[in-house]
Structures are given as C-alpha cells and as structure tokens.
Amino acid sequence: MEENSKAMERTAREEYMNRAGVLERISELDASELANQKQVKFKEGTNITYRLVLKLNKDRVQTKKEGINNLTEETGLSAEIDQRGSKFVGVITDWGDSISDLWDSMDDHDDVLKIGRMYRKKWDKEKKILTKEDTGNLIITFMGDKVRKSLDLFGRRTAIKVRPFIASVKQCFKCFRFGHIKALCKSEERCIICGDLAHGNCTRDTKCRNCGGNHRSTWRMCREYEKKKNINLAMGLNNVSRREAERILAGKEQDKAQEQTYDRYETPAQWPKLSQPRKEMEGR
After folding, report:
1. Which H or E element spans position 143?
2. 58: phi > 0 → left, psi -120 to 50 → alpha, else beta; which?
3. d(CA 125, CA 151)
4. Phi and psi for 58 in degrees, rounded to 5?
5. What is the DSSP string of 162-221?
6. What is the pLDDT of residue 81?
7. Sign of the CA dihedral 174, 180, 182, 186?
8. Residue 245, burial from CB neighbour count under 10 angstroms (0-12, 13-18, 19+)
9. What is the DSSP string of 129-140?
10. Most exposed among 12, 48, 141, 175, judged by the fewest C-beta atoms under 10 Å?
11. Half-sphere exposure of 203 (CA within 13 A, CB side)
C-alpha cells in the first residue's frame, strides 16, 4: 500500500479548482500511467483529494452513472461526470510566485474554473522512465468561449498576459498514426522505416506511414504533421472545435481567424495595458 501511494504521489499534478469562490487543491492522476497499474490503492490519512475523470460514450452514459454511484457507495470516493461546457484554456508564462498568490492577486475569480502547473514529459535515460518536468508556466481555464488576452491583478493596477493554449500534436510510436499515444494504441506495431507491419531490421525504401512520402513517419516536416499542427494552432488561437479549425484553414471563415504571435519581446503592442481604478485616478 505504501508503494502504491508513492507511485500516485509521483503522478499527481499540482492543480487547483475554483469551488464557490474558494481555491481548492486537487490532484488529477495521469490516466496513461494508471492504466498500466493492475491495482490502485489509496493510503489512509491522505489529505489530498484525487479526482477521477471518466471518458463516456453517449450510449453508455447511464451505465457509467450507475457505475459511479456504485463506486461512491462501495469505496466512499467521490466521483462525478465533467460538464463539457464552453471554456477557454490559456497559458501564463510571466508569473514566478505560487498559484495561491496569483489567486489572491486576481481581481475577479468568477470566470476562473481551474489553475494548474504546466508540465512537459521528459525521458530519464538513467532510470529508463518517462518523467514530468515543471515548465514554470501555469495553465488556466476560464468559463465561456471568449478568448482571454490578459488577467487583471491588484485592483486593476496591472495585468498579466494570457496566451492561448496550443496542444502539441500527439503521435503514436507503435503505429505512427496521429491523435493518440503508444500506451493507448490498439493497432498492430508498424515499421518506422517502411511503414509496413513490424518485421525487425528493415532494408526497404523509406516510406511515411501518414503521407506516403520518402521519409520516416516521425519526420517533423511531414505535410500531415504540419497539417495537424496548424489545426491545433487554429483551435487554440480562435478557441474553436477541430472541425471549425479545419474550416478556418480551408478559407471558408477567414473573418474569424485571428493573427497572433507569442513573441513577447518583438511585439510590445500586444502587451496588456496597465490601468488604475477610476476613483484613485480622479483623486489625483
């Protein structure tokens, strides 16, 4: 039990949720790592709340609801179905203090759903395991589909820039298709060189599994990879669905597309403007 508890602590993320105006610490376990564990046990006396996220198919919602009720009754764990409403996910790169300090400095908490630290996956060559590395950035989720560009702090005396979250392109290193990872792949293993079924040492001509070009399936200049990357970019910048992003890229709704850059040094005109409360300004 002690070993399982330590494993869960390593996979836990630092994340906070707005519950009725109060910032509450939660810890969401990495689903891909949990899937590899045959049994999950919770150590008694743990003060951290673990949130279980279930992915549902429409035709099985009722079955899952019954399963959640049984889980709650049998184990005492609290479980709920996430409400997939409209939201905007942004990234804060210029905050060096804690999440709780940011929360206390914010002028308005009503539209904030969740704040958490942003991690990147890194391969540990010595231990031969995949680890998480803190990027120093924060990821913040707002209620509503409005694209946020800044966050007012300290009574509107200053503001901090919010950039749209751009999801990275997921690629499976088993079948080499896009959209999922190896841990969740249900396809047969493919050869990285010729794209055919895995067959050991390969001396065939190089062929991409995705576009059919004469390069490896992991080449980042592949036109299919570039297409997926641009779709993710359009989704993040405009806060739209994948289908809507594809329409924007196809030129069907260019009026909705927004040109934007991430470079905070070369484009100071896009920095949030500083402002002060009117009463203080009028009294000076």
Report:
1. strand 129-143
2. alpha
3. 39
4. -55, -40
5. -EEP-PPPPB-TTT--BSS-GGG--SPPB-TTT-SB--SS--SPP--TTT--SS-TT-TT
6. 46
7. negative
8. buried
9. EEEEEEEEEEEE
10. 48
11. 0
Kindly report the number of other CB atoms within 10 A of residue 263's CB atom: 8
CA separation for the pair 26, 81 (Å, rounded)? 16
Angle in degrees, 0-180, between the axes of helices 242-249 and 223-238, rounded to the nearest 10:
110
How is residue 8 written in tokens? 């869960």
Cβ–Cβ under 8 Å, residues 243 and 231: no
Residues 6+ apart with CB under 8 A from 168: 232
Amino acid occupying residue 208: C
Mean per-residue pLDDT pooled into runs of 10, the chain (284 residues) = 43 72 67 45 49 49 56 54 66 92 91 90 81 90 90 92 93 93 90 93 94 95 94 90 87 53 50 53 47
- Structural contact between residues 149 and 125, judged by C-beta atoms closer than 8 angstroms: no
Tokens of 283: 């009294």
d(CA 163, CA 145): 14
Q: Please state whether the predicted TM-score (pTM) of the whole model is above 0.70.
A: no
Strand 87-92 and strand 22-28: the pairing is unpaired
